[in-house]
Specification:
By secondary structure, this protein is α+β, with helices and mostly antiparallel strands. The protein is built from 21 helices and 15 strands. A hairpin with a 2-residue loop joins β9 and β10. The relative contact order is 0.14. The C terminus is likely disordered.
Length: 722
């Protein structure tokens, strides 16, 4: 019997506000489990099905006798990423290395946990046999595969009964070169055996139990010698105390939803963290060094997991609109889904820094206040970008409205906001950052810029501006550079920006210097100059006009008086008012003795976090790129049998590794510095499989999500057909 998962209005709104609580997380977890099961079904029906058939049969057998053991594997860090990779682009299909074979490694853990006898062939790579959730056998030489045998013997009480705890398990690994026997307690290291460490933390009755996953073939394998399990365990214990004491509701969510930590290589500075879209509840992070950073990373990355799972159920936006958008927390252009992911993840940061700014003292309090103000400004700017350029569905508009309300409420609480001076400093950095981003990624239209240059020289109005065009990023992307970083750091202690007139003169002297444009954008915004928004959001257009007009003026006849050089402040003011004329000398609109154009500053769009603004359907796409790829594949997703509550027992720089999540698999990386990485395009990329799109209706209505649940066990169905 097939029936839908129902996402109640109050749960949807609670998730949109940034939280949701334990019941919402358990619902998302069950829905993601159902998705993973259907991906397994599709993998078995596809070209890799033969390679995965034996492992799927073993998993079905385990599910019949020990459902919890089977679910622990299906919910685990590696299952979803394996299924997505197998369906998407199995790199070695037909050449003896089909990705479908890797399912066998995942099912060994289920057999061991269920004390279920098993014989299964598992691939060996570079002499290593990786068993996710369990550990890695090393030193197997050139063997391409190994036979893993799980044997069970009765304990002293008599018959083998795993549920009674009286059954012993023996695991043997056989290759052509010989046999290895795993330790009786697989959590202990042995000769040629590196176990996956399990990190336990408990505080005030709330327990977090996470494997330090180093054996998943779809996730990076990293030697943890520099920060071993004992160090991770102690750090998690301290971070967990901080979360339970100061963020109890979010700690309950983490206890219900987190299922693993994958250690990443450390970046040159800061912390690298990320989340795979297909590994719900798994956090990828480098060594965080202090418990506060680990707590923040867990909050931030779990927000990504929640939104990824939510968008399996509902569609927040539709194809169209601008494909590459500005996100102030990232150095590269973001797709619409990536922008929404970043906004949502920063709600966790906002709650964290609001708490820390109220608890710290001295310089630490000032630092927390800065980070709080910066995070709030980032979320507000992201909301503005999403409202203007993302084609939101009705549910998507409702989602952002609830999210914006959370930001407004946090601002009204005002914990450690730091006052007007801090707000001005954050605004300067943000204006400069966006200007530098525009210079790096936005390409001005040559024909449109030539037209504007001719209109400026002839003293006529600018008229409509050329269309925006943002280039796509390829490969890893670094931040804006040390020069801008040093300037931004100085703004924290500055009383005000450099005078706009002085900044404009510096730009004319060195128009190719990005930091000069950052200073000009910040100064113009702080002084309320006409055209200040254009200096920030169309920086590349103003710069190209300056560069085009300077050669024209230098080429005047010998006896002709040279007009004044193009003034970027005057150019921006002229561009901001399509009906304004330039003066006969070509110097732009008339200016007063202070250098400020004599017009009222242009109106700025209402921000959804300040007032509701327009959370609408976005705007037509400006490039013929076609629709974005869909998340769903046009299928319904059955839940497991008896899908009740599960008893508890997925960078900035993600680096690169064999089998790592591709750009479309990783969601917005975490709260560390900006080494840069590819990231998941994010939620809502088309209708989720069989989704019933809600209308964002009023109280008491259900959103009617797309997942379906099956009273029969999908694994039993898999076994029957496989």
């Amino acid at each position: 019997m097939i029936g839908p998962y129902v996402l109640p209005d109050e749960v949807f709104d609670a998730l949109a506000a940034g939280e949701g609580g334990r019941p919402a997380v358990l619902l998302l977890r069950r829905a993601r489990r159902s998705r993973n099961l259907l991906l397994l079904r599709r993998a078995l029906d596809g070209p890799c099905g033969g390679a995965a058939e034996a492992a799927a049969g073993l998993l079905a057998g385990v599910e019949r006798v020990a459902p919890r053991a089977a679910r622990s594997v299906i919910d685990g860090p590696a299952f979803g990423t394996w299924a997505a990779r197998t369906l998407r682009d199995c790199p070695a299909h037909g050449r003896g290395g089909c990705a479908g074979r890797d399912l066998a490694a995942l099912t060994v853990l289920a057999a061991i946990r269920a004390a279920h006898p098993a014989r299964i062939t598992v691939p060996v790579r570079e002499g290593r046999l990786a068993l996710p959730g369990l550990g890695t056998v090393t030193g197997l030489g050139v063997a391409p595969e190994a036979l893993v045998v799980v044997e069970t013997t009765a304990g002293p009480e008599g018959s083998p009964d795993p549920s009674a705890g009286n059954c012993r398990v023996r695991v043997r690994v056989l290759t052509a070169a010989g046999e290895r026997v795993l330790p009786r307690d697989p959590s202990r290291p042995g000769h040629g055996w590196q176990p996956v460490a399990v990190l336990d933390a408990r505080h005030r009755g709330l327990t977090l139990r996470l494997p330090l996953e180093t054996a998943a073939p779809e996730l990076p394998a990293l030697d943890t010698a520099s920060a071993g399990p004992a160090a991770w365990r102690e750090l998690l214990r301290q971070a967990w105390e901080l979360l339970v004491e100061n963020h109890p509701r979010r700690a309950e969510e983490l206890a219900a939803g987190l299922n693993g930590i994958v250690p990443l290589p450390a970046p040159a500075r800061g912390v690298a963290s990320a989340t795979s879209r297909h590994a719900f509840g798994t956090v990828l992070t480098s060594w965080p060094a202090d418990p506060e950073r680990l707590a923040l990373t867990l909050l931030h990355e779990f927000q990504h997991s929640k939104l990824s799972a939510l968008t399996d159920l509902v569609t927040l936006y539709e194809p169209g609109g601008r494909p590459r958008l500005y996100a102030p927390w990232r150095p590269d252009p973001r797709p619409p889904g990536g922008l929404l992911q970043g906004i949502y993840a920063h709600l966790g940061d906002l709650a964290f820094w609001q708490d820390r700014s109220g608890r710290r003292h001295g310089p630490a309090r000032a630092d927390a206040a800065w980070r709080l103000a910066q995070t709030r400004a980032h979320v507000e700017r992201g909301l503005t970008e999403a409202a203007a350029h993302v084609r939101l569905t009705d549910l998507g508009a409702r989602f952002l409205e609830r999210l914006a309300r959370t930001v407004r409420d946090a601002e009204e609480d005002g914990g450690g906001s730091g006052g007007a001076r801090l707000a001005r400093a954050v605004a300067r950095v943000q204006a400069g950052d966006e200007a530098v981003w525009r210079l790096r990624w936005a390409a001005a239209d040559d024909a449109g810029t030539d037209r504007l240059a001719a209109l400026w020289q002839s003293g006529r109005p600018a008229g409509p501006l050329p269309a925006r065009d943002v280039r796509a990023a390829t490969g890893a992307v670094a931040g804006p550079g040390p020069e801008f970083g040093r300037w931004a750091a100085r703004q924290r202690g500055a009383e005000r920006a450099r005078p706009a007139r002085e900044a404009a003169d510096a730009v004319l002297a060195a128009p190719h210097r990005a930091r000069g444009w950052a200073e000009l954008a910040a100064a113009a915004a702080e002084e309320g100059r006409p055209g200040a928004d254009l200096l920030r959001t169309r920086t590349e257009l103003v710069r190209d006009l300056v560069l085009r007009l300077t050669p024209h003026q230098a080429a005047t006849p010998p006896d002709t008086p040279s007009p004044r050089r193009p003034d970027p402040l005057a150019l921006a003011a002229w561009l901001a008012d399509p009906a304004a004329d330039t003066d006969p000398a070509g110097a732009g609109p008339a200016t007063d003795e202070e250098g400020a154009a004599g017009r009222t500053p242009q109106a700025r769009p209402t921000h959804p976090a300040r007032g509701l603004g327009r959370l609408g359907r976005g705007e037509p796409a400006e490039s013929d790129l076609g629709p974005e790829p869909l998340v769903g594949d046009g299928f319904t997703i059955p839940a497991e049998s008896g899908s009740g509550e599960v008893s508890e027992g997925s960078a900035r720089s993600t680096g690169s590794w064999p089998g790592a999540p591709r750009a479309e698999d990783a969601v917005e990386p975490g709260p560390g510095p900006e080494p840069g990485s590819a990231a998941e395009p994010g939620p809502g990329e088309g209708r989720a499989a069989g989704a019933q799109r809600g209308d964002g209706g009023g109280p008491g209505q259900n959103t009617g999500v797309s997942m379906s649940q099956n009273a029969r066990s999908p694994l039993a169905k898999t076994s029957a057909t496989g």
